[in-house]
Amino acid sequence: MSRQRTVIIFKSESESTDVYAEELHRHYFNPIFVPTLSFGFKNLDKLNAKLQHPDDYSGLIFTSPRCVEAVCKALKNNELPGAWKMLHNYAVGEVTHNLAMSDLQQLFTHGKQTGTARSLAEFIIETFDGGKDLPFLLPCSNLAQDTLNLKLHEAGFRVDACEVYETKCSADLAEHMARALSSENIEYMAFFSPSGVNCTYEYFKANNILLDNYRLVAIGPSTRRALESKNLKVHCTAERPTVEHLIKVLINPEESRERLLKESQVALEE
C-alpha cells in the first residue's frame, strides 16, 4: 500500500469536513484540519428588515455558507418571504447552493458551478435576463473583497451590500497549529482563503517556521495571490473549493501550473 502523505488543511469546520477526510484517505492522503477562522454575526436586524421587502430587489447573492447562515439567523426561525423564490438568486459553489436549498425553504440559486466571486460575477453578467433597475441584496463579511461588487457595477448592476459577519483568527489557532505541525510526513499545506493565509502567516512568522519545507496549495486564485503577496511559493492551485479539485491538483500539480500559465497569458493579451 502507498505511504500516506500528510496534508494540513487550513479550513473552517463545516458539513463538508467529513467528505474531505473520507475522499483524501481514499486517495492515500492523511488530512489534518486546522480551523483558522472564527465568525461573529452582526447587523442581523438590519438584514432582516431588508429581507422583508423582496420587491425592492432583483435577488440575493450568497458568496459563502456564512452568508446563508446570517440570513437564517436574521429571520429568527421565521420563513424567508416566498417572493424571493421568484427573483434572480445566486451562490458561489455547491456547498453554499445546497445550504440555501436546505435551510431557506428550497431557495434555488444559480451559479453553483462557479468557484469564486469573480467567476460568479461573470456568470451573472453573461446570463442575467432581467432589468437592472433594482439592486441585488448581498450579505457579506467585514473582509469581503470588492471583486464581485466592482464587476457588477461596471456592467450596470446595482448592489446593496450588507455587512453581516466578522471574520477573525481563531482563538485556538496556536494550539491547533502546534498539534498539527508535530505530525509526521507533512508534505502539503492547503489554504482555503486569503484571511486564512493572513492568520496562519502571523503564526509561522512569530514561531520562525520556514514554509520552504512544505508544498503550499492554494484553493482559488485569490488565495494564491494572498500567498504570493507574502513571497511564498505556491506549488499548485485548485480551481474550486471542492475536495475533487483539491485531490486533482495534489495528484497532478503540473496540470494546475499549465492552466495558470495559459490564464496569465490570456490576461496579458486582453
From TrEMBL:
Molecular function per GO: uroporphyrinogen-III synthase activity
Domain of life: Eukaryota
InterPro entries noted in UniProt: 4pyrrol_syn_uPrphyn_synt_sf (IPR036108), 4pyrrol_synth_uPrphyn_synth (IPR003754), UROS/Hem4 (IPR039793)
One GO location term (cellular component): cytosol
Coiled coil regions in record: none
Annotated ranges, domain Tetrapyrrole biosynthesis uroporphyrinogen III synthase: 18-247
Catalysed reactions, semicolon-separated: hydroxymethylbilane = uroporphyrinogen III + H2O
A family per Pfam: HEM4
E.C. number: 4.2.1.75
Pathway annotation: Porphyrin-containing compound metabolism; protoporphyrin-IX biosynthesis; coproporphyrinogen-III from 5-aminolevulinate: step 3/4
Keyword list, A-Z: Heme biosynthesis, Lyase, Porphyrin biosynthesis
Keyword Lyase in annotation: yes
Record carries keyword Cell division: no
GO annotation, biological process: heme B biosynthetic process; protoporphyrinogen IX biosynthetic process; uroporphyrinogen III biosynthetic process
PANTHER family (UniProt xref): UROPORPHYRINOGEN III SYNTHASE, UROPORPHYRINOGEN-III SYNTHASE
Cited function: Catalyzes cyclization of the linear tetrapyrrole, hydroxymethylbilane, to the macrocyclic uroporphyrinogen III, the branch point for the various sub-pathways leading to the wide diversity of porphyrins. Porphyrins act as cofactors for a multitude of enzymes that perform a variety of processes within the cell such as methionine synthesis (vitamin B12) or oxygen transport (heme).
Protein family per UniProt: Belongs to the uroporphyrinogen-III synthase family.
UniProt protein name: Uroporphyrinogen-III synthase
Species for this entry: Glossina austeni (Savannah tsetse fly)
Lineage: Eukaryota, Metazoa, Ecdysozoa, Arthropoda, Hexapoda
